[in-house]
UniProtKB/TrEMBL annotation:
Record-annotated DNA-binding residue ranges: 64-123
A GO CC term attached to the entry: nucleus
Location relative to the cell: Nucleus
Keywords: Coiled coil, DNA-binding, Homeobox, Nucleus, Transcription, Transcription regulation
Protein's name according to its UniProt entry: Homeobox-leucine zipper protein
Gene3D superfamilies: Homeodomain-like (1.10.10.60)
GO BP field: positive regulation of DNA-templated transcription; response to auxin
Keyword Repeat belongs to the record: no
Keyword Nucleus among UniProt keywords: yes
Species whose genome carries this gene: Brassica napus (Rape)
InterPro entries linked: HD, HDZip_class_I_plant, Homeobox_CS, Homeodomain-like_sf, HTH_motif
DNA sequence: TTGTGTTTTACGACCTCC
DNA sequence: GGAGGTCGTAAAACACAA
């Protein structure tokens, strides 16, 4: 499409100087189709730093803004096609694309800048989604492991209770059958400390009693947590 | 129709590289 | 120092719900 045609036919256009932006709805300032006065809006642009605008700068800015318009679908399609091939433009390539599309090289450069920014944002969003998915998966795995730990802890507790009951039953049996004939006595929660038995002594003549590291052991049993526990 | 949110075009400021 | 990049933002254009 011809640049002149575009510039003169696409409305509204804007004229922008260093310090302000004037938006004109009709190029010649005449009234719009509904009979209302041409709308002119002035908006102050934010000023950054200590830039001092010259008249030349203003003129160039006005010239650029004079051409401000939305690109046509065909132009956007061609620019997208170029962007697929290369995200950054060589100077010559920029001029070529601008010539082919009837655009200012500056417009092509700006379009590529903005397109790169959009592409970068999209990449970031994709990366975020990927990381979030991974994180959610990790959290789920952690929950499963924690519930497994709880289940195993309960099983361990039940097993310990079972062991305690069995050992208590055994101790009661031993004490009831041997209470009058032996000086050996065993009580739960009371570690034996002063036994006189020598190794290989027995309880009731059939349960061997061993001594190791100043601890007394029944066969396959160990004094543990105040009780004799069978292993 | 209008208010509101999103996208697009363009810019200024600043940074990096040659 | 200039060319060309990113970043943040303005403002028009657009989409859409109420």
């Amino acid at each position: 499409m011809d640049q002149t045609v575009l510039s003169s036919q696409v409305y509204p256009y804007t004229i922008q100087t260093q310090s302000e932006c004037i938006i004109v709805n009709q190029m010649d300032g005449s009234s719009s189709g509904d009979g209302s006065k041409p709308v002119k809006r002035r908006r102050k642009r934010r000023s950054k730093g200590s830039s001092s605008a010259t008249n030349e700068d203003d003129v160039r800015a006005m010239e650029r803004m004079f051409r401000k318009r939305k690109l046509t679908d065909e132009q956007v399609i061609m620019l997208e096609y170029s962007f697929e091939n290369e995200h950054k433009l060589e100077s010559g390539r920029k001029e070529k694309i601008a010539g082919e599309l009837g655009l200012d090289p500056r417009q092509v450069a700006v379009w590529f800048q903005n397109r790169r920014a959009r592409w970068k944002n999209k990449k970031l969003e994709e990366e975020y989604a990927k990381l979030k998915s991974q994180h959610d998966s990790d959290v789920l795995g952690q929950c499963q492991l924690e519930s497994q730990v709880i289940k195993l802890t309960e099983q361990l507790s039940e097993a310990q209770n079972e062991i305690r009951k069995l050992s208590e039953r055994l101790v009661v049996q031993e004490t009831s059958t041997n209470s009058s004939s032996s000086s050996f006595s065993v009580e739960a929660n009371d570690a034996p400390t002063d036994f006189e038995f020598s190794p290989m002594d027995t309880i009731n003549d059939n349960i061997p009693l061993y001594m190791l590291d100043n601890n007394y052991y029944l066969q396959n049993m160990e004094y543990w947590d105040g009780l004799y526990v069978q292993f």
